[in-house]
Amino acid sequence: MADRVIAGAIMALSLYFMWHASELSIGWNGMTGGPGGGAFPFWLSAIMFVCAAGILVRSLRGKTDYSGNFFDPETLSWVVSVAVALTITIALMPVAGAYIALPLFMFWYLKIFGRHGWTLTASLCICTPIFLFFFFEVTLKILLPKGLTEPLFFPLYAMFF
Amino acid sequence: MELIGHLADGFATSLSPLNLFIVIIGVTAGLFIGAMPGLGSVNGVAIVLPMTFIVPPSSAIILLCAIYYGAMYGGAISSILLGIPGASTAVATTFDGRPMAQQGRAGLALIAAAVASFVGGTISVILFTLFAAPLADVALAFGPAEEFALVLLAFTTFVGLGGDDILKTIIMICLGLALSTVGLDLISGDPRLIFFDQPGFYSGVSFLVLAIGIYGVGEILYTIETSKSAPSVTPARLTFRDLWFGIKEVGKLWKTLGFGSSMGFFVGMLPAAGATPAALMSYGLSKLMSKQPETFGKGNIEGVASPETANNAASTGSLLPMLTLGIPGSPTTALLLGGMVMWGLVPGPMLFIEQPDFVWGLISSLYTANLAAVLVNLALIPVFVWALRMPFTVLCTLVLVLCIVGGFAPSQKMHDVWLIIGFGVAGYLLRKAEYPMAPLVLALVLGPLMEKSFRQTLISEQGNMMAFIERPLSGTFIAISVVFFLLPLLKYVKKANRAQKA
Where in the numbering of this chain does the DUF112 domain appear (chain B) (predicted)? Predict the structure, then answer.
């Protein structure tokens, strides 16, 4: 089942890549004497499509080597919840800023998902953003997204820059 | 004798109290910068470059080289402990370093990485000292056809000797190569594969984004599934006895270390290559020469030592064309070159005649920086190993936060952070379906070099495909590649024949 799902997805992806790549020349370019701009991605995607089709056919004929357990509802729910939490965190970063979004994610992961104590959760949720600020912003001059919280950082900018 | 005299003068410069202090500070800072996913020697050197005007040029270049060396060592730390390459140069270290850490052999992997880096760095500095001028000429003779053939050889080693499902390996190589073409066409400059018209794709898919996505987020998602709260690794301890045992273990790999050093040094000299391809090629060829290639990717110490030797050797090698020809062999050496120009030093053959103090001070500083880096690294290994003892959920949270910030830092674009999540989920699913990850990452790194050298050769040879075979060096590489590619087929035929007889 896993082999078929993934092989099907790769075939679809290959077709999408081929369609995009064919916007440029995929054949021999007479002007420069070499393959056109789209040739490399197009033909690579074509090979990918053929190999994925091979895996699909092999799987349908019952000749797969795949031994894993692809779908396990309980464990899959943990993975999905972490992936969703990460997606929400990243969506929140440009709006609420990294210093709100990241501690919120950490709080959810440590306290709710990991069931750790308040002391550990609070100390990590406070210390990590402080470390990130001093390491990335003050030392490396890499500014993280602040969003709505930007004005709160003006006094810190005045102090450290 | 003249060489020894020059080197002695250089050591007089690099061993002064100020320069020794600078070396220790530089390697320590480089070690931490290199260990941070998303940052590497380029960032370290770029940050410090403007600050070096307060010291003389020799001290400035010593500081920058110390950071460069420290970062090369540091990249292996997060590759081994977290499974995320600290820098692109350390990606091959992840293949076996991470499984070693998961087997409770993190200390040994870190020692192997440190000692191998030291050996690679030292051998290449000696080569640098002895053969700087003649080797620069050889590197210049290495044209696009040879580069293409060498990259092809790197891929076919994965197909022929990988031990994974061949169709899946080919898919991953093609996917990595296709992703490497995202952005602008190398020749015409036309936009290619700009998915959903997102402007972020114009700058291509960064190698670090893919590596952090697959080895950071993907690995965490995969581990969450197998254990929600239990530690992901067996806690490792490290004593002086372990240290001695580790050094002895690495000492047994003298063939790998010698080969990795010389190959890394040579590949590092090629202007288009650098430390990352050197490490990946060294890994592939070590697997090829190993008596147990099937243990690679499952925690083989050789798989850690080989790329670490090569990437450090390559970092020294990349300094050679910069000094002798003014052609940087890597992004970091491009920055060093910029720094030299700012200090009023003109790189080229005349530099050795006009500025001997500077040149020999730099060469001798490579010896001291290399020694300082291995000592600081070994001294800090217990701290890094201690980090493994924290509960999995704590480690997991910190790694995911580091992945997000580390993915954002190099480009400062949220687009890259979204890609990290996308690659993380895709990597998790592909891993579940038993697709090998190493060929994908290798292909993304080597893809631009492969396409460029392929098209350059065809343009210069008026489309004559035979150009790849007619040149002796590239012809040999291609012939070996064909053999590797046909190996699985031969194995299959042999197996089928045996089954028929039985």
Answer: 20-442
Helix axis angle for B106-141 and B2-14, nearest 10°, is 130
Structural domain range at position B363: 1-150+185-437
Q: Which pairs with CB-CB distance under 8 Å and at least 24 residues apart come from B336-342?
A: B336/B45, B336/B61, B336/B64, B336/B65, B336/B68, B338/B49, B339/B45, B339/B49, B339/B52, B339/B60, B339/B61, B339/B64, B340/B57, B340/B61, B342/B53
Interface test with B, best of A4, A20, A79 (most B CBs within 10 A): A79
In order of A58, B117, B194, B357, the CA distances from B212 in angstroms are 32, 23, 21, 42
> Residue B445 falls within a domain, yes or no?
no
10-residue mean pLDDT profile of chain B (502 residues): values are: 75 83 88 74 71 75 84 84 77 88 84 90 88 64 82 78 79 94 87 89 84 81 66 55 81 86 83 73 84 84 91 85 70 74 74 77 84 87 72 82 86 92 92 84 81 87 84 88 83 74 68
Contacts of B391 in chain A (CB under 8 A): 114, 116
For A8-12, A33-37, A124-128, which range has the lowest pLDDT when averaged over its residues?
A33-37
B residues 445-464 lying closer than 8 A (beta carbon) to A: 451, 454-455, 458-459, 462-463
Query: ipTM score here?
Result: 0.92
Burial of B376 (0-12, 13-18, 19+ CB in 10 A): buried
Classify residue B77: in a domain, yes or no.
yes
Burial of B278 (0-12, 13-18, 19+ CB in 10 A): buried
Residue B66 forms part of a structural domain? yes
Residue B160 is assigned to a structural domain of this protein: no
Sequence-distant (≥ 6) Cβ neighbours of residue B19 within 8 angstroms: B13, B58, B59, B62, B365, B368
What is the domain count for chain B?
1
B313 with B269: CB under 8 angstroms? no
Read out DSSP for A33-76? TEE-TTHHHHHHHHHHHHHHHHHHHHHHTT-----S----HHHH
Which of residues 219 through 238 in chain B touch A, CB cutoff 8 A? Answer: 220-221, 224-226, 228-229
